[in-house]
Design goal:
Elements (H helix, E strand, L loop, with lengths): L4 E8 L2 E8 L8 E5 L12 H11 L5 E4 L15 H18 L3 E6 L1 H10 L5 E7 L4 E2 L2 E2 L12 E6 L7 H10 L4 E6 L10 H15 L10
Parallel strand pairs: 3-4, 3-5, 5-6, 6-9, 9-10
Antiparallel strand pairs: 1-2, 2-4, 7-8
Helix pairs in contact: 1-5, 2-3
Length: about 220
């Protein structure tokens, strides 16, 4: 399929889902999915954090899929407060597995992390997952993560020390719910959107991938 970017529509449970695929290399060892922040507050698959996470993962040659949740961008359907969006994540994972037959790595930012982790926790196809800007309280919503205690796969959490939606102490408590292997990286001075600190966020992702999935190969510069 080559290393290009493919724009297409996935078949989703509420209609077509607008998607972008960075095809990766023929010898890829894993495929990855990256999910975007809250669509009612401007979140799409073109979000800066999502884009830079994709770049970090694709630097290992992994095919990386991004898509717009229902009702965002050109995706059909209407926002469903995170419930239907879980089904969107499942549809994207099914497509990735069907296309590549590789172990999967999930990555989500903010709402995308909170929504997607519920889906991937305990899924045997998921080699590991990444939560960026794990939200605790945002726009009047409280997020809970008790299900993390059942997630055996390797987990990486990356948050800013000044994350306005996920204070460091609260995020640490969430991470402690999860069994090992788990890692938490707090990026100094960074806010929820890692503004001015996206390279540090990318470095955390790359270091984790090398540690757990690609110890034989350093990532190329993005």
């Amino acid at each position: 399929m080559g290393n290009g970017i493919k724009s297409f529509f996935l078949k989703g449970p509420a209609g077509k889902l607008e998607a972008l695929l960075n095809a990766g290399e023929p010898a890829a060892t894993h495929a990855a999915l990256v999910c975007h922040p809250h669509p009612l507050y401007g979140g799409t698959m073109h979000n800066k954090v999502v884009y830079h996470a994709m770049k970090a993962l694709s630097s290992f040659g992994f095919p990386v899929l991004r898509f717009n949740f229902r009702g965002a961008g050109l995706s059909e359907g209407e926002h469903d407060k995170g419930q239907g969006e879980q089904a969107d994540v499942r549809a994207a994972l099914e497509w990735l597995e069907g296309e590549y037959k590789l172990p999967l790595i999930f990555c989500g930012f903010s709402f995308g992390a909170a929504t997607g982790m519920r889906v991937v926790c305990g899924d045997k196809r998921i080699a590991g997952f990444i939560s960026l800007g794990t939200p605790i309280s945002a726009e009047g919503r409280l997020y809970t993560y008790h299900y993390l205690q059942n997630c055996a796969a390797p987990k990486l959490f990356v948050s800013g020390a000044r994350d306005q939606f996920g204070p460091e102490d609260n995020v640490r408590k969430v991470v402690e719910l999860a069994p090992e292997p788990r890692e938490l990286v707090i990026v100094p001075e960074a806010d929820h959107f890692f503004e001015g600190h996206l390279p540090e966020m990318q470095a955390a992702i790359r270091d984790w991938i090398i540690k757990f999935f690609r110890p034989d190969r350093q990532a190329e510069a993005s």
